[in-house]
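Sample entry was shown:

___
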Amino acid sequence: MGTRNRAERRSEGHAAGRLRTILLLGALASPMQAQQGFFGQQWASRVYSPSGKTIASAAPDGTADIAFRIDLSDTVRKVLPTLYGNNLAAWAKRIQDGSNLSVWEHPYTLRHLRNAGITYLRLPGGAWANSWFWDKDASHWPLKSSLTSMQIYDDGLAAWSMTFEEMLRTCDSVGAKPQPIVNMGLARLIDEPNPVQKAASYAAGWVRHAKSLGRNIEVWEVGNEDYGRWMVNWEVDGDTIDGVKYGTAFNVFADSMKAADPRIKVGAVLYPDFKDAPSATEVPHWTEDVIATTKDRADFYIVHEYFTWNSADINLVTFDEVLAGRDKIARQKSDLDSLILALAGKEIPVAMTEFNMRAGQKNTTLVSTLFFAEALAEFAQAGYGLVNAWNINNGKSTDDHGMLARMDWDPVPGKKAAEVTASQAEESTPHPHFFSYYYYGKYFGDAMVRSTGGDDGTHLYASTFSNGVLGIVLVNEGPNARRVELDLEGAAAQGAMRWHTVTGDSLGTRSIVINGQGAPTGKVYGPRDYEDIPAYARDLDSNSQSILFEAPKYSASFLAVPLAGSAPVGVEGRVGSPSGGDLRIANGRIGFALPQQAPVTLTLHDLRGGLVGKRDLGILPAGEHSVSFGQLATSSSRGIQLLRLEAGKVQTTKLLLDGLNARP
């Protein structure tokens, strides 16, 4: 356990009283959902774009086994693009397929990473952060032996691991924003006076270096899982870290880093299940002490979660235990929000910067597709500001957390032999959970709406797109197909429903099937040309408010249901209730109501009559409609503009004083 210290004993003396207060607040108040804070500024409207080819699919026979009610008038939460982050480990520089290509230039790898829609890449990856030097130079100060004797120290400096600039190139190739973790370990490992100030100055140097490269990197983390015995700075010369020590050092880091660039946001490390500490973390009251110490400096808080654990053999974790992790997400967020409010006196956003299953060789089976399909929606619904999966490619044979396979087939000491051979999966082949990201990018909208119903084995998450399409994620965890009734409130469906379903014969299979197509003969995981798989499609009755859908056994289905007009969803950045046919501008959106079906065109003109932007919306039904102003405008759309709506033979014009900002 290490040597106890006065800060730890002092923490134990008052933490029990604090926790009683927190639990009392939770009992008296309704569940609190803190807002997404500054992360919410990244929200952007999304438009559903149907795929080209379809396969006709008839409605199922019989009656429903289970029902869900979807209320399109009740918006739960914005869906932020920050939901789709991942981790880029510095050790994953070279693609192990004989091509001698780096990750940022390998076409097969980049194809999948771009298709996954990754928006943030956290670097340099996990525990490396606390022993990694951004300038690849460890000669700045003498370092204590607890760092210099570790292999991770040598690996971080090795030529085969990525430099910061190489990781930036990878981010650019993927289309993701970099999310660095500064080295908190140095605050305890520099063997000179004032190690905290020197480590903080080194972190600030990284911020300045990024700025000198013309990079506007906003999100920075200070340390990685510093509460854990597995971290290099947990115990140094018999002295163990605690929340007060970490928080005090964090404040120095935050001040130094923001002096280098005041625009950045700096996050501090918490443990999510703080009520279970110290057994899980070895550090009593870590989370409470960090919040109390950093509440005036931290722009956001950081947690990690892998949901399950079995100390005897991780492969003994069951499928039920994996899928039960879904329920932790909202509970942990609610508990943390209550704790932060009680100790900080304000809401501070929370980022989940590492998550995955922890189930050994089950990690690369179908159950991971279902788990991720549920977890992503749960994270969005709970209000996490940023979410990063762990990771892009890990390299642990089939006991692998990577989104893409890595050809590391050497036996791992103490683990079972790999169940997949090099001939069955090429380097960078998408693992099963990749397909949850791929289809979220196609079928999950920009705002979640409330859904109720289901049972312990069937779960549904509903969202809306800004062009009036309902996006649904429907997971059937069970061994039997389910006929599901989808009851719509606040809007009706009209047109052709489309969907893709990811399934297999069992939760433990590595033979993934999407709309009837699987991996090539002799291969595992999913279809290699998944982009070309046609969607299933079914024409719905006009103004349908009840849809019958069959969810295959062990499946995650991703559906797009066109609505008869845009439902009033009441989320910031969208037009609210219909107001009788006028042309309205609000929060970057254009709203209008049609008394009857009509072809609609929107045009934007400057004061000389020149055309600035145009969008043909096609024939729209009667009712309320809403489109993003950004889909009509261009970068030159500033100053006084004229917005014109042509609906059949009727024209409506509105004067805009500040075009691109859509201000009437």
